[in-house]
Amino acid sequence: MTVSLHHIVVDARDIASQARFWSRVLDWEILSEREREVVIGPSENAPVGICFMPVTDSKANKNRLHLDLAPGPDGRDAEVDRIVALGARRVEIGQTGEESWTVLADPEGNEFCILRPKTTLIT
């Protein structure tokens, strides 16, 4: 038997706020909210969700893992504008300007990318 991915766990200073931000970005639901854990997902029966766990320290360095998000039908620029309006910010991590993605950071500084429209996992 092989394992399956259940949650992506994100450390956060304010787990409730981070969960609200990401649930709006992904149009997901808050599925469980406890003192030391908030879980979001598309539904409670979805195979994968995001779990926010509390930490006391702030993020200090570039992420070693980040999310790549595919834009909806309105395209990358519209999604970038929408997500920035939710509280994200644009960040520079060495881009050349020729990339097919845009790098943003969530309210606690975790980088993620909005890609060009894609229909497969292959580039």
TrEMBL record:
Output the PROSITE patterns linked to this UniProt entry: VOC (PS51819)
Q: Which CDD domains is this protein grouped with?
A: VOC
Q: Which SUPFAM superfamilies match?
A: Glyoxalase/Bleomycin resistance protein/Dihydroxybiphenyl dioxygenase
Q: Which Pfam families match?
A: Glyoxalase_6 (PF18029)
Ranges of residues in domain VOC: 4-117
Q: Which residues form the signal peptide?
A: none
PANTHER family associated with the record:
CONSERVED PROTEIN, HYPOTHETICAL FUSION PROTEIN
Under which name does UniProt file this protein? Answer: VOC domain-containing protein
Tell me the organism. Answer: Paractinoplanes toevensis
Q: Source organism lineage?
A: Bacteria, Bacillati, Actinomycetota, Actinomycetes, Micromonosporales
